[in-house]
Design brief:
The complex is a heterodimer. Chain A is of the alpha+beta class. Chain A contains 4 helices and 3 strands, in the order αβααββα. In chain A, α1 (2-25) crosses α4. Chain B has helices at residues 3-17, 22-39, 46-56, 59-66, 76-109, 117-157, 162-165, 184-205, 228-255, 260-282, 289-297, 306-312, 316-347; strands spanning 215-217, 220-222. The N and C termini of chain B lie far apart (82 Å). Classes of the chains: A alpha+beta, B mainly alpha. Chains A and B meet through α2 and α3 of A and α2 and α4 of B.
């Protein structure tokens, strides 16, 4: 039960930072599965059923752009960060740094 | 890849996309299919495909993640109110429809039954089952309309931002201390059940629901227990009781605590109720003449048989019942006074 609670907390904790990670990766174009592998290679624990809907959501929100590459035998949808997405990424990065400093400050106080 | 494996993937993708808005389905279908094929090894077998589909998870959950906005019939914000409403609407509907069912069934059935000892059981069973059937129907209707009402209210309310429409004035009062508070559910049930009972009793007195009673007395059948004048008096007393219950119940619901005013009203209504009940118990001509005649003409009753006293018109049963009524009423008043003192003590 405790493990399950901890896992839930970790999932909640990661949820916000996944958006930051995805925007960071998509400075160059990736299709879904390739991005999944790239993130997992960087030890970012994310599942396919989380990443694929997240990509669509970020695109709907205007942070990503996509295009279908039909040159190969199987068409693939490539995502990359939009101008709006770059701006938001910068702001999110600042927030993340502030949060990190705050938490480090709390830990040092203890 | 074999056709069978393609079909498996197609079925999975269909099960995900059919749950999405129509304008998104085609794009999600293409993207999901592409992603699934990317995740598969070269020349995948059925087992590989199954593993990937299980990794993606249940289609309903994946579709939920793809949906941009969550879908509810009644949102979490309104759900508590919905459950609270159901707690009193469903019992009320059940009881009201039960009574309607009993009245309708008895009205229909009484012409089909001779009021004899052998058929009154069947008659009672039929009207009770009819009441239960109507009661269940009433509960389901109550559930349906309550859910519909809240669903519509939620849909309309969703268009407004709750943070912008919320006002300080709309904050509810804090509930009273738990030990002193009169639970709202108790007050509502104490209001509903007696009133429903009295309405049913009035219907009985008016003959809308016949009193099924039959005794064979020599060559005649006794089919009335109480006299007409007594039944009319009962109607009058029951109406007064309904008014007293309404007053007590409403005051308890408004104040929710045993304040002196609430206790005073409760005691006053209880005493008035006692007076009216004593009037009924001690009046003349309670029983129908046929029933009295039956009691007097029947076998010898035992010395302490209640029916003996009734046959002789002996006032002692009425006196004993009156004493019991007075004792119970005074005890009830005592309990109310105790609750008031306790509430006063807690508030200090």
């Amino acid at each position: 039960m405790e493990n399950e609670l901890l896992q839930n907390l970790i999932t909640e904790f990661r949820r916000g930072s996944l958006t930051l990670a995805v925007l960071g990766f998509l400075k160059k174009p990736y299709y879904g599965y390739a991005l999944l592998q790239a993130m997992q290679n960087k030890n970012i624990d994310i599942e396919a059923n989380t990443l694929y809907p997240l990509l669509r959501r970020l695109e709907t929100q205007g942070f990503l752009v996509s295009n279908w590459d039909t040159r190969e035998s199987r068409p693939r949808k490539y995502y990359s960060i939009s101008e709006n997405g770059k701006e938001v990424f910068g702001q999110l990065l600042e927030e993340w740094a502030k949060m990190q400093n705050s938490i480090e400050g709390i830990c040092k106080d203890e | 890849m074999s056709n069978k494996n393609d079909t498996l993937i197609n079925r999975y993708v269909y099960d995900v996309t059919r749950r999405l808005p129509e304008k998104e389905r085609e794009d999600v279908k293409k993207e999901l299919e592409s992603s699934i094929y990317d995740m598969l090894p070269e020349n995948p077998g059925q087992k590989d495909i199954e593993n990937i589909l299980y990794e993606l998870g249940a289609p309903s959950l994946l579709a939920e993640k793809y949906r941009q906005k969550p879908r509810y019939l009644i949102s979490p914000a309104l759900f508590d109110n919905y459950i609270r409403a159901l707690k009193w609407i469903l019992p009320l509907c059940g009881i009201v429809f039960f009574i309607i069912g009993v009245i309708r069934a008895s009205d229909l059935a009484k012409t089909d039954f001779e009021l004899s000892a052998s058929s009154w059981v069947n008659f009672s069973v039929i009207i009770i089952f009819a009441g239960i059937s109507e009661g269940i129907s009433g509960v389901l209707q109550g559930l349906c309309y309550t859910t519909l009402g809240f669903g519509i209210a939620d849909h309309i309310g969703n268009k407004a931002n709750p943070n912008k429409t919320w006002k300080i004035e709309n904050l509810p009062e804090c509930p009273a201390h738990e030990k002193n508070a009169i639970p709202l559910s108790d007050s509502i049930l104490e209001l509903i059940f007696p009133i429903v009972f009295y309405i049913f009793a009035i219907c009985l007195c008016l003959g809308l629901v016949p009193i099924v009673f039959s005794i064979q007395n020599a060559n005649s059948t006794v089919s009335a227990f109480f006299s007409t004048s007594f039944l009319m008096s009962c109607i009058f007393v029951f109406i007064i009781s309904i008014v007293l219950e309404l007053i007590t119940g409403i005051v308890k619901i408004i104040y929710r605590r045993w304040f002196p005013l609430v206790c005073g009203i409760k005691i006053g209504c209880t005493l008035l109720g006692m007076i009216t009940t004593l009037y009924l118990v001690n009046r003349d001509n309670i029983f129908h003449n046929d029933f009295i005649a039956f009691l007097q003409s029947s076998r010898e009753w035992g010395d302490f048989d209640l029916l003996r006293f009734l046959a002789n018109g002996d006032p002692r049963p009425a006196i004993i019942i009156s004493c019991i009524i007075v004792i119970v009423t005074l005890t009830e008043c005592g309990v109310v006074i105790y609750k008031m003192d306790k509430s006063r003590f807690q508030r200090k």
